[in-house]
Amino acid sequence: MTGLLEKAFKEASKLPDLEQNIIAKQILKELSAEKQWEKTFAESEDILSKLADEALKDHRKGKTSLL
After folding, report:
1. I need a labelling partner for 22 at 20 to 30 A (CA). Which of 38, 53, 54, 65 fits?
2. What residues have CB less than 8 Å from 15, skipping those under 6 apart?
3. Distances from the Cα of 22 to the Cαs of 25, 36, 58, in angstroms?
4. Cα–Cα distances in Å, from 65 out to 4, 14, 55, 58, 61?
């Protein structure tokens, strides 16, 4: 555990139980969302690769412009 996370938990432990539970639920929700994002991103890797190839082809054909 990093020092910063340890400090955050130490400070949170001083809060009333209700507030501790709210923080705990937020952390767990964030961790779950991060896992879901990683899974979704990994599953879309082939699609992203195909889109990148198409974009490069369009660029080489002069079908793109600078923003």
Report:
1. 38
2. 23
3. 5, 21, 49
4. 45, 56, 11, 10, 11
DSSP code at position 14: T
Q: Cα dist. 32→2, 48, 59 in Å?
A: 20, 23, 38
> How far is the C-alpha of 9 from the C-alpha of 14, rounded, in Å?
9
Amino acid, single-letter form, for residue 4:
L
pLDDT (tens digit, 9 = 90+) per residue, 17-60? 999 999 999 999 999 999 999 998 888 888 888 999 999 999 99
